[in-house]
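Reopening this ticket.

The earlier resolution said the output was attached, but the attachment link was broken on my side. Pasting everything inline this time so it's all in one place.
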Amino acid sequence: MDLDAILGAIQWPAMAVTLFAAWLVASRSASRRAAGFWCFIASNVLWIIWGWHTRAWALVALQIGLFALNVRGAAKNEKS
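Inline output:
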């Protein structure tokens, strides 16, 4: 499998991690919410890689913004 195919396939794990993160963030447990924010951060990185590869610049910009919000959410979750 070449690099182009690997980068093209990143959208599928990115999607799965995003859905799992949303499920975790909806938890009443602070530790699960924290894990959810870290999963969201991982999905942001995966989406940025995929978006960069496909030149989907609006998606890259969105994921950078969401990355910042997820870092904020992780920090706020630790304080509660």
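Reporter confirms the inline version is readable. The CA atoms of residues 45 and 63 lie 8 Å apart. The helical segments are 3-9, 11-25, 30-54, 57-79.
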